[in-house]
Structures are given as C-alpha cells and as structure tokens.
Amino acid sequence: MDIIWELFIILHANFIICISAQPNVPKIHEGWWAYKEVVQGSFVPVPSFWGLVNSAWNLCSVGKRQSPVNIETSHMIFDPFLTPIRLNTGGRKNICRREGGNADGPCQVGGTMYNTGRHVSLRMDKEHLVNISGGPMTYSHRLEEIRLHFGSEDGQGSEHLLNGQAFSGEVQLIHYNHELYTNYTEAAKSPNGLVIVSIFMKIAETSNAFLNRMLNRDTITRITYKNDAYLLTGLNIEEIYPETSSFITYDGSMTIPPCFETATWILMNKPVYITRMQMHSLRLLSQNQPSQIFLSMSDNVRPVQPLNNRCIRTNINFSMQGKDCPNNRAQKLQYRANISGQLLHKM
C-alpha cells in the first residue's frame, strides 16, 4: 500500500511540473484590436491584421461584402421601390415619422455616452426605444448605439468615401433586427441582422442640435479617457438626421471585428455639421486611461474595402427608372459632391 501511495505522489508531482511548464500563450479576446498602431511596445492588430490573428475574424480578410466602401456616384442605380425611412419611438408607430424630414411628434430618448477607447459611443437606454423601417428594410430595426468616427485633420475621418473623398467625420446609427432576433449580439452574426445609418460630418459655424448635446464642453469633457461614461437624457433622435429623405444603400458588413457580413448600410444624402471647437474637443479624447500615455482617438476608421460588383442603390431619381444592376455598368452619368454634401448632376 505504501508503494502504491508513493507512486501516486510521484505521478501527481510530474503532472504538476508538466502543466506549469506549458508556454504562457496570450489569449486572443474579442477586444484585442485597434485602428492604428499603439506606441506602448505591445502588438495590437490593426485593420490589415484583423483577419489573420483570430480565425473567428477571418471575414475581415476574405469576405466579399466588406465595409466601408468608396461610393462612386456614377455607378449608383435608381430604385423606385425604396420608400422613405420611418422612425418611431416607445413602441407607438408613426410618433416620429421621417417622410420628407418631418416628425409627427417628440422623439425623446436617452442613453449613456462612453469613451470606449475606439469611439465616442452613445448606447441607448431600454426605456425609450427607437425603431426604423422603410427604405431597403423588410423588417423593423431597433437603435442600439450611435458611434462617432473622426479624423486628426479636416477632410479625413469618415469611413465611407464619396467619389474618393473623405469627410471630417461620420455618425453611425447601429440598429438590429428586433423582429427576428432577441438582441444585438444575436442579430450581428445572423442574416438580415443589422441596419446602419451613416451620416457624414462636416465643420461649420453652427452645430447639429443632437450632436451639440453630445459635444458641448460640459458633456465631452466627462469622457476624456477610456471607460469614462456620462448619462444623457432628453435627446430628440429626429434631430440627428439631416433635412433630406434621400439616401444611398448597399449590402455590407460591420466595420469592426469580426466583420460579419450582416449589415445593410443607409448613407444619408446630406451631412450634419459640428463646429471647429467641437471637432477639436473630439481630437482631445484619449484612447487610453489616465495612467497611460495620451493617444488621440482620432482617425478611428477602417480603410475602404473592395466593392466586388455589389449594387449601390439610391432613391434619388436621376431618370434611370427601369434599369437594373446588371445594366448599371452602361450608365455614364457623372455626379459630384457640392459644398453641402448633396449629389448634383453634372451636365
């Protein structure tokens, strides 16, 4: 019996030694990515490496319907079946209808604004629900989060490009399909899961009313460092939309890992404006915590991805009714972005 006990102790000790000798392999987790290289000595994958460091993110490298993209207005196709986008809040339909840019009633919402280290993120509370429908959507989608992308210099900072030109920033309103899925996490990896409304930002003398609430000095200074948070209430969600019912849409992906190709993008055909001081305040936000070196959150964008023959549709009627996507290549119409961000026909 003593011999058996001694043998057990020896085997147990060898097992412990073998386990402790295993190499300490760093765990790859869903938050291990960045938009740009850090300066603190540790490797964090930037966009060109997202699909290589984690097999769950392989779509970031091999996907064929990735976002963002460069919108070539000469390749857009008019779709007469794209209806206006409709908003409603609180589960009461049509209380906040957007048809021609007008609302039928107040669209009050609230949420918590975060410095995530990568974005300024406004995550909506569950008491004031905001749903959108119409446009390219078959189902109603619920607003989950608003993210801001912006550049370190004017004229860069938007993820999407318009005829090769970037804007100073981009607002992204991220919605999930609440009719088919129980939450955002489930919808993000499922067919027809997400709808993302994108609005370009430009610098002007005055500011969009909704963004002014987010970016005024008393608010933005509350989220200077990573993980800072600040509660905002009494926001009118209708105010974040520009005064236009025109938009561009295409099928794409999330622009962050794991780059699931489950998103329908809707790009509004007019920008919103913030002041130069508000843009400066955004650039002073740190993607690190106070104890770490300051690194501006700006330039938090993924580079544009190949279009791969996807169809870019619009409800802007350029006398192209009756044409479908395969015939789109034959169209020779040329468009440009004017100073207000609207698309103009170049004769």
Spell out the CATH superfamily: Alpha carbonic anhydrase
Distance between the termini: 99 Å
Principal-axis shape: globular
Q: Give the strand tally.
A: 18
Topology-level CATH name: Carbonic Anhydrase II
How much of the sequence is in beta strands? 25-35%
Rg for CA atoms = 23 Å
Biggest beta-sheet profile: 14 strands, mixed
Number of domains: 1
Uncertain parts? 7-29, 99-105, 326-342
Counting helices, strands and paired strands, the structural category is: alpha+beta
Average pLDDT score: 84
CATH architecture: Roll
Q: Helix-strand pattern, N to C?
A: HHHEEEEEEEEEEHEHHEEEEHEEE
Number of helices: 7
What is the CATH top level name?
Answer: Alpha Beta
Share of residues in helices: 10-25%
Give an account of the 3D structure.
The protein has 347 residues and is α+β, with helices and mostly antiparallel strands. The protein has one domain (66-332): Carbonic Anhydrase II (Roll). The protein has seven helices and 18 strands. Strands 2, 3, 4, 5, 6, 7, 8, 10, 11, 12, 13, 14, 15 and 16 form a 14-stranded mixed sheet that branches. A hairpin with a 5-residue loop joins strand 17 (335-337) and strand 18 (343-345). The chain is globular and about 55 Å long.
